């Protein structure tokens, strides 16, 4: 927008008597431009359209109706507002582009916060304990699995056993086990770490994994994630038995069983709340954000009300296997996390939809 200062003085007639000319000289109020005269209340150079006008009909100016800090960032752009015949700015801001919902990992900043975002950046972080994206470069040697949780000292896991490799399938990266009952795992002692510190005595937690399983051990099952002291079934152990039985152990006891489809890449949430009054609500499974009904396979025993997690005596945490021995499944583990709370159904649905899009933390 540009208006001669003399015209401005006419537009705001009655308010501006002394102004500056374009060459910077002080100008007196009696040298207004053509068509306007200070103090008469008329609406400027084109004049004659009635009193009270604040702009010149047909004139335009830049406008932006969203948060000012987003203007000019990402897709966001100002528009134009026009002056109507009565000398008033019309409310519409034509052509402006204001923030929209971010579309993840497309290189475009739709919500105008300065950057594109990946789906994984939008995951719930409330009460997050550990988070492993497992997005190592395929065909490069694995040595450790990085804990990306921003809270506490990271608990990185050591890759041992030789039978697990980094892989990428359909654009999603993860760990691949070619054989059932092999020794490959990511594992670490978690005594004195945040894992023991925050899970010892826990009554609420959520295990979140993305995986696809082709086969598993037929007798004891194959461990997907396991927290334990080496022997038995572990204190917190999610296992797979073919053809499609998932079993969850709590304090070394089979506590829940389900039969969801896991042969194709899917998001699983095991949600524990031993304070839930109804036994059926104490351990729940969600597949892709939808709760799965319980099975009696293996004759599970629901934990008693208020049971706490026992983690004494040097617990070890493992992905894709028990913490010792040979209990791998055949398939892919794309992502694994633990929260120290029972996530809500809404949080689970949100994370499931995000993780189905993307389970890696690669730069968008
Ligand atoms: Ca985007
Ligand atoms: Ca953005
Ligand atoms: Ca991944």
UniProtKB/TrEMBL annotation:
Note down the stretches annotated as region Disordered. Answer: 23-53
The residues the entry assigns to the signal sequence are none
Amino acid composition bias (Gly residues), ranges on this chain: 32-53
* A Pfam family per the record: Laminin_G_3
Its name, as the record gives it, is LamG-like jellyroll fold domain-containing protein
Q: Report the source organism.
A: Chondromyces crocatus
